[in-house]
């Protein structure tokens, strides 16, 4: 492993500034040192990407599917090395890293299937009519096309599934966009291993080198340069609200604004209705404590707010309290994330309207965090908006409500969320249309009797939600709909059949689903007589 | 007709400031005076819209279809009055207004059909598997849902089809969003007539009054207030780059940024290849002159740049010159638009690298404009970026190229466009993959052997394009895809069937197309054994 950026098929390290990854469980530096990319190296990566787009943007679904499958296979080949390095860099247990490798490869293969099948392009044909009066009706056809080079920022909390070859990269590559990845400073070695596997796949597929580059450097510098570069056409980011908002603004304030998909901040409220509290106390407390502490609470979907009925909540709280108190200390991803977590829990501790119910065991490392359970009441929650702030880590805040009206008021007061969850029995859920109606306006995903962590990767998943959960609530960063973020519809009027993309040709050579004169069909186009 | 805003089912005029429409063909004021809405009236309209969204956002496709059809019928009922008033306010001929009324009603009915059929919601179901290990697989379903109250700005150049009940309003209402329309100061009376017809339809359908309001007032004031209001969730605009950019920034800089769809500026390049110049001189010159001068050139799709081969262009230029010189003077929509047109043509006249080929007849009114034909060469075009600026009106600039490389360089140099057109014979078009490849990155619609004016309203149309053609190149403002602008996917995990929207219920009661485990089908969901 050498500490250099991957610029197309070359390695670059003209900049003398370097940084090292840190093992969060020891606080010690890990070798090698990684060079920040220079401004020229960043520009070269973008130029190569723009050149590659001219061919890769027109690659067939089959070609892109082979690339994605090859990337997955290459990652599996280095799985053992990845487990070692990623565990060192993140303090996440090897079993979690193995799961994340599997998820990453599954995502890549799901997108490979999607583009090999091909119907995702939303092909539409409105047949012409030369005999129409007063003017002939033109033949109009359209489909989704890639935007162009995309910059992807690795996420601290998903060293694989939302990093170099993660969901953003897979969805951008699947839909025909070259990708430039900005590595996360917390796991540069993991990024390098995956980056080399990805770059090898590009070469093995005889695709142009600019299809992929991996850049090291600080987000405030290299990241901003990438977002502002005129040849970059979109961006994907998973991280903090501060970082995401700054990049959103940079993207919006360009001479040519570009879409920037930042997945930022969510407290994932859980609403426990009276029937659930009555019948499912133990199961919900167990499930919730596990969800709050999973991965040291370092998930975007971590349940940070739990609304419970005031009456009858003693047993539930006692159970949650015991579970959280018994939790071993957690080593967080970085000492910075751990400091932010400590500040967040200290702010709750210092809030006169909030009570610390219990805390887990403490550790000695810089990056060691204790699980924390807090409680407050609905009136306090409604009056103090600071209680909605995400505390990233293994903490949650119970909010006791004394009436349905209070519950509804709390739901209405929320900002945009990735998820919202309701626990209740069948009768009570069926009488919660009002709550469901509010929550589907607030969140990308509404869950019955489950827990928000564990995001299923499929066609129907929505991992998105109104601002500030994401920069653009019209999108998802997980599941096959994620590819749509990096596309735009392009229309072809009165084209020769031979000049049309295969997806729009009369004969439907790819056999895809198309909307012909408003009707969904896989048939070829029969010529009107 | 009374000069007051329509706030839900009430009329409002608490503000003393008024303005009058002007007949551009006489310069005289038209009665009555229209009151600017007060800030309180604007807030009331938004509050009503937010309240209405709680029910209208969950209205069925059938209910929304009936509303849209009723709006169309109510507009047809007042067609005669509309023709008189709209012609007075815009100087557009009655025949054009009649056509625009027909297009407006067709658009409304197309959206009615779309939502009554229902498959547009992109329903997706990934079936659960309780037996999966290590964790059960949840049942995940998702579909598109409305964003919330939308503000729509009327377009100066489409008093009907892109104004009160135009494409933006139809697409927002169809997808479940209440609409607040800001009238254009050039045609407030037309807005009022249509607004009353629309408001009557809302009442006739027993829908909440906040589904629709119509507001008078300056864009810089009332318009900005609307875009910045926290309860407004999206905006639609057709107009100048200056106005659109200001509103885009206002939308992006809100505490909660919202999508803002501005259709702004396009010069709609036309590329004439050698074979077309050779074989189709007369047909192309005739078609082009008609397209440039149609509606006094006041179309977003007006062809403002025409690239022609240097060699053999004399006859084509002579023909175009004669046609443009013979054009009668045009009365433009407003004296402001006409002044801007005169400034634009004067700037071309004053440019040493541009030659005025011919000018049409001149008129005496303030708003009278002459057709103008200019020419330059490709080198000048490539060196002077001011030649890409849109001149809104009946003018076009011929650019003579002397090589294929120059043609390609010109294409590459363009900003984002609504349309791009290529004229050539079959052999030459089939050898123009390079040009098509560039243009499909630059434009929303690429046309073979046609003219960009005349936007067919259907399922496949794309009236959009990369910035600055629009604020968001991922969208179209014409055709059924336009509705997607005002939606976001919402996901339901492990929901009770009874609590799901009909579109996602097991039995598929609406009979819509759905993606079940990745396969497109209209079947109901068979329970896995």
Terminal residue distance of chain A: 65 Å
Strand content of chain A: 15-25%
Radius of gyration of chain A: 25 Å
CATH topological fold name of the largest domain in chain A:
Aldehyde Dehydrogenase, Chain A, domain 1
Most extensive interface: pair and counts?
Answer: A-B, 81 and 81 residues
* Class per helix and strand makeup of chain A: alpha/beta
Q: What's the multimeric state?
A: homodimer
Supply the number of structural domains of chain A.
2
Describe this structure in words.
- The structure is a homodimer of 529-residue chains.
- The mean pLDDT of chain A is 96.
- The first copy, chain A, is α/β, with parallel strands linked by helices.
- Chain A is built from 16 helices and 23 strands.
- Chain A is 37% helix and 20% strand.
- The first copy, chain A, has helices at 39-56, 61-77, 79-90, 94-117, 167-174, 188-204, 219-228, 241-252, 274-279, 281-293, 314-325, 335-350, 378-383, 404-413, 426-430, 433-442; strands at residues 5-7, 10-12, 18-23, 28-35, 123-126, 140-146, 150-153, 179-182, 212-215, 234-238, 260-263, 270-272, 305-309, 330-331, 355-359, 368-369, 372-377, 395-401, 417-423, 443-448, 487-493, 514-516, 519-521.
- In chain A, the strands form six sheets. A seven-stranded mixed β-sheet of chain A has the order 15-17-18-13-12-19-20, sandwiched between helices. In chain A, strands 21-6-5-22-23 form a five-stranded mixed β-sheet, with no helix packed on it.
- Chain A has two domains: 7-264 and 477-484, Aldehyde Dehydrogenase, Chain A, domain 1; 270-448, 3-Layer(aba) Sandwich (Aldehyde Dehydrogenase, Chain A, domain 2), CATH 3.40.309.
- Chains A and B meet through helix 4, strand 5, strand 6, helix 8 and helix 15 of A and helix 4, strand 5, strand 6, helix 8 and helix 15 of B.
